[in-house]
Amino acid sequence: MIHISPTGKVKIFNLFLLLFIVIILSCNNNKKQSDTKNTIIETETRFQQLLVSDGAATAFYAFAADSAVIKRQNDSLIFGKEAIKKFYSNPIYKNAIAIWKPDFIDISVDGTLAYTFGKYEWTFSDSTGKKTTYKGIFHTVWKKASDGSWKYVWD
């Protein structure tokens, strides 16, 4: 038979209590991560819906952080929310439709940054109605704004 002193019993109890707290906190963090991933999916969906309903300029402007940067053809970068809106105000984007869905989402430990990537399709119609579709891979970095919304800082 093993005899444990009262001091030893307290230490064992404290160890189990600490283990229990760590497990509870870990479960809570996993729930927060899952909730944040769902919020990012919802944000991506609203972004896409706004693009379809109101156009690329409106959507890219609405979901951009003030300091957002987008990478476009030939590795060119467009800096800032206003410049991004101007870029997507080009008539070529007036009737363009983009669809995408994240294949992967990751969230920072503190829950303030996230990134997504997946496949996209842009479909453009020319003046005769002929449609052309471009496919590719997107990568977006999201930052949680002070109002709790998510804005992209890189796309």
Structure description:
The chain is an alpha+beta fold and 155 residues long. It has a single domain (6-154), classed as Nuclear Transport Factor 2, Chain: A (Roll). Helices cover 41% and strands 36% of the residues. The protein has three helices and six strands; from the N terminus they run H-H-E-E-H-E-E-E-E. It has a six-stranded mixed β-sheet with strand order 2-1-6-5-4-3. A hairpin with a 5-residue loop joins strand 4 and strand 5 (131-144). The relative contact order is 0.14.
Number of strands: 6
Overall pLDDT score: 86
Largest sheet data: 6 strands, mixed
Quickly give the CATH architecture. Answer: Roll
**Contiguous helical run count:** 3
**What's the number of structural domains?**
1
Strand percentage lies at 35-45%
What's the helical proportion of residues?
40-55%
Q: SSE string, helix = H, strand = E? A: HHEEHEEEE
Radius of gyration: 23 Å
Q: Give the spatial strand order of the biggest sheet.
A: 2-1-6-5-4-3
What would you call the shape? elongated
| Low-confidence regions | none
Q: Could you say which structural class the secondary elements and strand pairing correspond to? A: alpha+beta
CATH T-level topology: Nuclear Transport Factor 2, Chain: A
How far do the termini sit from each other? 66 Å
CATH class descriptor name: Alpha Beta
Q: What does this entry show, briefly?
A:
The protein is an alpha+beta fold and 155 residues long.
